Amino acid sequence: MSKKNNNFPIVGVIISLVVAFVITFLGTNDVFGEQKIPMESYRVYLKGESIGLIKSESELYDYINKMQQSLKEKYNVDNVYIPNDINVVKDVTYEENLTTISNIYNIINEKSPFTIKGYMVTIDKTNTTNYVDDAQVESDEKDDSNEPKILFLNILDKEMFENAVKKTILSFVTEEEYENFINETQKSIVTTGEIIEDLYVEDVVTIKEAYLPVNEKIYTSEEELTAHLLFGSEQNMSSYRVKKGDTLNEVAEANKMNVNEILIANSNLRTSNALLYEGQELTIGVLDPVFTTVEEKHVVADQTIAYKTEYVYDNTKLVGYQAVQTQGSNGITRITQKIKSVNGEIVTALISSQEEIKPVVNEVIVKGGRKPVIATAGNWTWPTNIPYIISSHYGWRWGTLHRGLDISGTGYGSPIYAAKPGVVTEVNYHYLSGNYVVINHQNGYYTRYAHMSRLSPYVKVGDYVTAGQTIGDMGSSGRSNGTHLHFELWYGKPYASGSQCYNPLLFY
Ligand SMILES: [Zn+2]
User: Fold this and answer.
1) What's the pLDDT score for residue 286?
2) How far does the centroid of ligand 1 lie from the alpha carbon of residue 476, in Å?
3) Count of structural domains, the chain
4) What is the CA(134)–ligand 1 centre distance, in A?
5) Pick from 42, 47, 316, 326: CA 20 to 30 A from residue 118's CA?
6) Each residue's pLDDT tens digit in the chain (508 positions)?
7) Ligand 1 centroid, distance to 394 Cα (angstroms)
8) pTM for the whole thing?
9) Which are the contacts of 34, defined by CB distance < 8 A and separation ≥ 6?
10) Containing domain of residue 300, as a range?
11) Distance, CA 494 to ligand 1 centroid (Å)?
12) The CATH number of the domain where 321 resides is what?
């Protein structure tokens, strides 16, 4: 018995060694991977929540240090703050449950990112006027009604931000105008000229110190921030390499921009007469300013009133006879205007007073012939009273083709005239164009007159109108910022496929 008793433990040890060997063997062999050796590990908690298991605590801290260091270099700051609620607790697990240090870092970066000290800018547009762009007449391609009312920007440096804001404003007024306005050194108007009465950003902008999360965009360069303030975040700005013979106009047109927008995007080009050279790189991008920069101007300018030529037929003279009876001469009217511009585009323009400096004298030519009529020569009739202000030209602006000419200044309710004889084909209301009239001039051309104050009481569909006949009253109906006529000239029915719209000024 005693022998057996002595031997038994030895057998037991041998058996347990064998078992241990088998377990070890199985444990290292994936084919039989059901049994595993648990190993020492570390469980990482963020804000009390487990985010994973890692093999080494010190590797995590080394990695965090390394990331801190590279962030310090990236932003050129002394301190990068890590979340103070990271906890690491010893644990036991199987190797396959372990995750990598970079994985853990990514989770931390997503849930509670490292921060640096800087400033958060809040741009509140809740009470900003909703300035609309009537280039969108008949097209909903850029509906901005869902744009956020409150925007945030992370910036590293206050002074950099102030400089970028100033640069943004200087895209819409010259540096000289800006300095003179700020320092109250504007020259008063003696005869003609202009004075900035007010210049401001209409949005409510606040800056406060903040810990900025590094997984968000943080602006560190003045140039990048200025570009963002002018072109918005979604804008993909691209560049264009100037080809031999390119003009600024052509480059603008080809890129769906107007010349002013090209100048704003390329501050090295000072004026629209700037010469381009072959190979020059130009920045291309559609303006979508973050701020609402408002400028209110008082302008006194002389407008030339072109004389008309009248023909008087004299039956006592032979056909073919022609003599100038009265020499024509252009008149000059001095007009005082109140112009309000938002981000460089006129939104309202009013003529507050006018004074005749020199009267216009129409030319009278006597022609021999039998027709005892007096006919007014000349081309298309101007569709509004004179003087007027062109508040927006035909062409590209803010990425949309403005298919007409905006004429302002003659006042709410002032008459709108047919530009040529023709037949009225539409008297209607559209939520973008407002009350409008279309005339078919029966020579291929059509004209369209939008934003009238009321549905025209003067004409109805099918009416024949003469050039200069009143067809409506100027207003601001539909999508419009202020009283103006949006005047379109088409070859073919407006907005029909195959029709072509033209800059009306080409016809005057
Ligand atoms: Zn317009």
Assistant:
1) 81
2) 11
3) 4
4) 5
5) 47
6) 444 444 455 555 444 544 444 444 444 445 555 567 889 999 999 999 999 999 999 999 999 999 999 999 999 999 999 998 999 999 999 988 999 999 999 999 899 999 999 999 999 999 898 888 776 655 555 555 677 789 999 999 999 999 999 999 998 898 899 999 999 999 999 999 999 999 999 999 999 999 999 999 999 999 889 989 988 865 567 889 999 989 998 999 888 888 888 888 887 887 777 788 999 999 888 888 899 999 999 999 999 998 888 888 777 777 778 899 899 999 999 999 999 999 988 999 999 999 999 999 989 888 877 544 333 334 789 999 989 999 999 988 877 889 999 999 999 999 999 999 999 999 999 999 999 999 999 989 999 999 999 999 999 999 999 999 999 999 999 999 899 999 999 999 999 999 999 999 888 8
7) 8
8) 0.73
9) 26
10) 293-378
11) 14
12) 2.20.230.10
- 364 domain-assigned: yes
Rounded to the nearest angstrom, the distance between the alpha carbon of 393 and the centre of ligand 1 is 8
Q: Is 253 exposed, middle or buried (0-12, 13-18, 19+ CB in 10 A)?
A: middle
How many angstroms separate the alpha carbon of residue 448 from the centre of ligand 1?
Answer: 11
416 in the same domain as 392: yes
Ligand 1: distance of its center to the CA of 457 in Å?
22
| 19, 78: one domain | no
Gap from CA of 275 to ligand 1 centroid (Å): 30
Which residues fall within 8 angstroms of residue 279, CB to CB, at 6 or more apart?
241, 242
* 3-class SS shares of the chain: helix, strand, coil, % to 5: 20, 35, 40
Q: What are phi and psi of 253, to 5 degrees?
A: -60, -45
Cα–ligand 1 centroid distance for 405 (angstroms)? 6
Ligand 1 centroid, distance to 503 Cα (angstroms): 12
CA of 133 to the centre of ligand 1 (A): 8
DSSP state of 81: B
Å from CA of 488 to ligand 1 middle: 8
- Residue 33 has what pLDDT? 52
Q: How many angstroms does the Cα of residue 507 sit away from the middle of ligand 1?
A: 17
Point out the domain boundary residue: 330, 356, 378: 378
Q: Are strands 309-314 and 363-368 parallel, antiparallel or unpaired?
A: parallel
Sheet bearing 86-93, strands edge to edge: 49-54, 39-46, 86-93
In angstroms, the CA 35 to CA 23 distance is: 8
Do 507 and 393 share a structural domain?
Answer: yes
- 126 alpha carbon to ligand 1 midpoint, in Å? 26
CATH code, domain carrying 462: 2.70.70.10
Domain boundary among 360, 378, 396: 378
Residue 70 included in any domain: yes
Tell me, yes or no, whether 347 and 455 share the same domain.
Answer: no
Residues within 5 A (CB) of ion ligand 1: 134, 404, 406, 486
Is 458:404 a contact under the CB 8 Å cutoff?
no
Q: How far is the CA of 135 from the centre of ligand 1 (A)?
A: 5
Taking the centre of ligand 1 as the mean of its atom positions, its distance from the CA of residue 274, in whole angstroms, is 28
CA–centroid distance, 175 to ligand 1, in Å, is: 29
Q: Which two tokens stand for residue 238?
A: 């691209």
What distance in angstroms lies between residue 86's CA and the mean position of ligand 1's atoms? 58
Ligand 1: centre distance to CA 431 (Å): 14
